[in-house]
Amino acid sequence: MAALKSYRVICGALILLALPAVVTAQTSTFVLPFERVGTPGTEVVTVIDPLNPAQTITQTNDIGAFVNPCTAENVDVRGTSTISTAQSIDKFGNLKVNVSEITKGTGAGWVALNGAQSFTGATYAFNESSQFKFTLPPTGSKEFTSDFVDKLTMRGAKSIDNWVIRAVFRIKVNADGTVQVSMVKMNADTCKG
Fold it and tell me: Is residue 6 part of a domain?
């Protein structure tokens, strides 16, 4: 009978030692500052294809100030996206990833007059957040890459000045479970005024 109780204690201790590996979460925080100022334009860049990392693709990105689709004025935008992730392994070996994103910033409107910037006095602010989660099956040495989009509502002095910027972020989970996050691009979207 004493041998049976010892066996239970040893098994219980082994289960408790193994349990933290199942519920322990790894967290990461990525601070992605951005500054879109100056004359609006585009640039062509070559990037790694998120669906096939062995290939590259060419994409056109907007650069410089955004053009407000409501007023046609240029808007210099500065801000920061803070993306936090928490990764954990469940009892089945699946990788669970919780993602939280907060983007804050400001904008200032201007027009070009005689080759110089003339500020219009229009100011904008934004403060957006989103959360989502996903689960990946045990993959061994495979990587996972996906893009996610957040809409940033630029709020002006009047509701007619409100418009949207679409920000695209890329999240990559390496084979060892390490998460990497980057900003892919930001584009002016639609007028909300």
Answer: no
Does 15 map to a domain?
no
Question: What value does the mean pLDDT take over residues 54-80?
Answer: 93
pLDDT higher than 90, residue 41: yes
Would you say residue 18 lies in a domain? no
Which of 121, 192, 120 minimizes the C-alpha distance to 159? 192
Q: How many domains does the chain have?
A: 1
Q: Where on the phi/psi map is residue 93: left (φ > 0), alpha (ψ -120 to 50), or beta?
A: left
Contact predicate 111/56, CB 8 Å: no
Q: Within a domain: residue 117?
A: yes
Residues spanned by the domain of 57? 23-191
pLDDT of residue 17: 39
Q: What does DSSP assign to residue 6?
A: H
Q: Is the pTM of this model over 0.85?
A: no
DSSP 11-41: HHHHHHHHHHHHH-EEEEEEEEEEEE-SS-E
CA pair distance 118, 121, nearest whole angstrom: 9
- pLDDT computed for residue 6 by the predictor: 46
Quote the CA–CA distance of 25 and 88 in Å, as a whole number: 4
Does the structure show a pLDDT above 50 at 162? yes
DSSP-derived letter for residue 142 is -
